[in-house]
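User: For a reading group we're discussing how well predicted structures match intuition. Take Origin recognition complex subunit 4 C-terminal domain-containing protein. Before you show the prediction, I'll give you the sequence so everyone sees exactly what went in.
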Amino acid sequence: MERQNSAEEALILLRIRLCTPNFIFSLSSDSPDSNYSKLKFILSSSVVEACNNSVLLLGPRGCGKIAVLELVLEDLFKEFPDMITVIKLNGLLHNDDNCAIKASLSPCRNFIKLILVPYAVFLFVDEIARQLCVEHELIFSKMASFDDNSQFMVAMLHAYTYLPYLITRECGLAHKTVIFVLDEFDLFTQGKQRLLYSLLDAMQSVTSQAAVVGISCRLDADQLLEKRVRSRFSHRKLLFLPPSKEDLQRLLKQILLLPSDSTLPQDYIVEFNARLLNILAGERFKDIMDKLSCSDPTINNLLRFSAVCFMDLKSGFISLENFKAALSSIQRQPKLECLKDCSILELYILVCMKRLEVKEQESYNFNAVMKEYRSIHESFQTSDHYSRSVCLRAFEHLLQREVIAFLDNRGHSQSVEFRPVKLLLSPHELYQGLKSYRSCP
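Assistant: Thanks. Here is the predicted 3D structure of Origin recognition complex subunit 4 C-terminal domain-containing protein, as structure tokens, for the group to look at:
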């Protein structure tokens, strides 16, 4: 019973770690070459040196761009209290002149929900003015025009005490840095880019204290900028690359190892960590990590690969079988499910197509597949020999199930036998499908 209680407490601790992005990315924040350190230096210089900066965070989804940014902002709020204002905008909400939506603040700071508004250009500046007013406890008027809000935004950036008529009391923002976070940055580049130009042009004054952080999954996001906008952009880019297999394994080790200073029994911690290290050092676990990194090497995928969910509370430890179960739960295998329902003849056709690809035959049709099928039958003297008409029906069935597909859309007038086709299965998927097929010869 005591062992089970310790296992439940350890399980809670590990789940909290996996659900806390700040903990995950703080593990690699100590390195001076990390994106965390570089981004923190860029933003802190905007606060300390009163300069304006702009930077793009680029990388695939799930690589931790937003998590690292939130970690940096949290640290900056601690270091420079009452000196930073964060304005968050999203390209999905504010990029389209015809989107007819408007962002409004909820009681949570800078959180966005939707209501109606006419134009996105007004929407962009209007949302900045709204968030600045809420941040500094000012009254925002819905009747303010685009020019009023533009002047107010520039006044805020330049740290003046200029206030249009929509503000009911004075505001001094000296030594205050405004950080603009533009999520889905590439969507802001659509159209005439008046939104980006307005913001970056307002930052050009030497008296302004501001920074723009763009977040995008497109690596060419800076190349989408117009010339006038590009000239006002600093061209700083931080590339978030998916970690290597070794880095993923090292991160997983740091997440799953129990801390020695926890309230858990010391003998349980020692045994738990010893068993875990033994598993991580094994070759079978390395094979699991190979499959994981081949499918999706991002940190987000690693966090979903949670053997913790399959941990046996009775034993109180994580086993290799738990990692295997976690891998199978996140791997999408719809094609393998299709192979389970295939006939022996259909499997023969798929193997013949794979053999043609191994022979570096770039294009092949049903006739080429039949020729390969006959060569297999003659070489191995198999009893599974079917007529051409039966093979054609099996071939058409594979096309209907989208296990194979035509190479292009041309040749609709041609017969099925003569149109080039391609296999939609990888060698690994075909091998696993044949391996799991119990009656496969």
